Amino acid sequence: MKHIADSTVRRLSAYLRFLEDFETRGLTTISSDELAKRGGTTSAQVRKDLSFFGSFGKRGLGYSVPELAGRLREILGLGREWKVIIVGAGKIGAALARHHGFQQRGFTITAVYDADPQIVGLDLDGLAVRDAGHLERDIHRDHPDIAVLAVPEQAAQAVTDRLVRAGIKAVLNFAPAQLQVPPEVTVKTVNMAMELEGLSFALTNRE
Amino acid sequence: MKHIADSTVRRLSAYLRFLEDFETRGLTTISSDELAKRGGTTSAQVRKDLSFFGSFGKRGLGYSVPELAGRLREILGLGREWKVIIVGAGKIGAALARHHGFQQRGFTITAVYDADPQIVGLDLDGLAVRDAGHLERDIHRDHPDIAVLAVPEQAAQAVTDRLVRAGIKAVLNFAPAQLQVPPEVTVKTVNMAMELEGLSFALTNRE
DNA sequence: ACATGTGAACTGCTTCACAGCG
DNA sequence: CGCTGTGAAGCAGTTCACATGT
Predict the structure, then answer these.
(1) Whole-model pTM over 0.70
(2) Nearest 5°: phi and psi at B76?
């Protein structure tokens, strides 16, 4: 398949959210222009984004809401359950483990790990924190698809190396570190410090 | 000033992190190439990024670590304290309030708000959760610089409108919503659901 | 008539390559 | 000589504009 830009995937994800909203409101068709307005983009952008994957619309009419939503779920790989493990049960890891919003879209948290004996064994809304020493064993047994990394900066690369060696192919990284991974592994990094500094820059340099 | 790309600012932020690491290790000079390797980019990119703001290096030698770190702090606006309020003290908001990592770089959490009477008054590591009804009054009195939005999706736009009307110029948004704000307000959105879907897409469509 | 789908034009970020200077 | 600083070239993502289909 032709390479799809990251920005395109993010917009597809946004379109799906809007379509689900329209779906619950009982609307059956939508135009690229309406979709664009909700997503803060342009109708041409919407049509171009969708065109990478086929022709889903009817000329002169627009798109069928349920059909397009279905196609987007397919494209984004949301037609199945993804097993997610959380590594690091500190403040952020624990908050994510307790956050039940992911379940909705098919992301199931199957385990939470920590290296601190004080934390191992704690209950997080029904999930017992496991010993990080068992990561490899558990990954070989349970085959989780995605690892959420919420460990301290200094541990991030070492833990990532272990996850990759054990077969993990997708990592959502909350540590403020630039992770090195082989090309077959996908990493998305959420760096709150960086975002705050981006705001600091904007506040400082606005004219 | 010439417009600076978002990607450039994010890299500057990363360079600063590496420089601080070098600083603590006592190194005094660094080349664009070393900086590039740590940041997963190229030396030309590093030099181009810096060139927007001046000429900080010595030809044939590289950059002075403390000097460049200082210049980057200046550029990013980190030479001062930024007052940050957190709106929404649910799982994510509370975790952020307790996360002391922000303090390090000059971001001080001055208040936390929630609309739920069950939550108002709770103590989060020394910060009492305030009633969201007092947002406007407090903003006029305390002049916070940045608002972190950690409220449910349905409330996100309405709360943003209140913040903007009260004078907030920078928002870090954790709600899965596309916020509408006037041009003088900067918004950065962290959308974990979208990141997970990006990983789902990558896992589904890798060849 | 109306909205899609798509080459072509455009914009802007990244990479190249080399002149300039310590 | 080595590494920076920077125009020029290259490339990728966005926008334009219109032919196409209903």
Answers:
(1) yes
(2) -80, -5
Residue A46 lies in a domain: yes
Q: Of the residues A75, A101, A129, which one is the last residue of a structural domain?
A: A75
b/e burial code for range B86-114 (CB count within 10 A of at least 16 → b): bbbbbbbbbbbbbbeebeebbbebbbbbb
**From B75, B91, B101, residue closest to A98, measured CB to CB:** B91
Asked if residue A169 lies in contact with residue A184, where contact means CB atoms within 8 angstroms, the answer is yes
Q: With CB atoms and an 8 Å threshold, state whether A194 touches B14.
A: yes
Token pair of A143 as six digits: 């085959």
Tell me how crowded residue B143 is: count the other CB atoms within 10 A of its CB. 12
Half-sphere exposure of B18 (CA within 13 A, CB side): 22
| pLDDT tens-place string over residues A146-173 | 999 999 999 999 999 999 999 999 999 9
Question: In this structure, are B151 and B86 located in the same domain?
Answer: yes
Closest-CA residue of A relative to B11 is A194
Same structural domain, A117 and A148: yes
Number of C-beta neighbours around residue B194 at 10 A: 19
In a domain, B14, yes or no: yes
Is A75–B196 a contact, with Cβ atoms under 8 angstroms apart? no
The total of other beta-carbon atoms located within 10 Å of residue B62's CB is 17
Over chain B (207 residues), what is each successive 10-residue block's mean pLDDT? 94 97 96 96 98 97 98 97 98 94 90 98 96 98 98 97 98 96 96 97 90
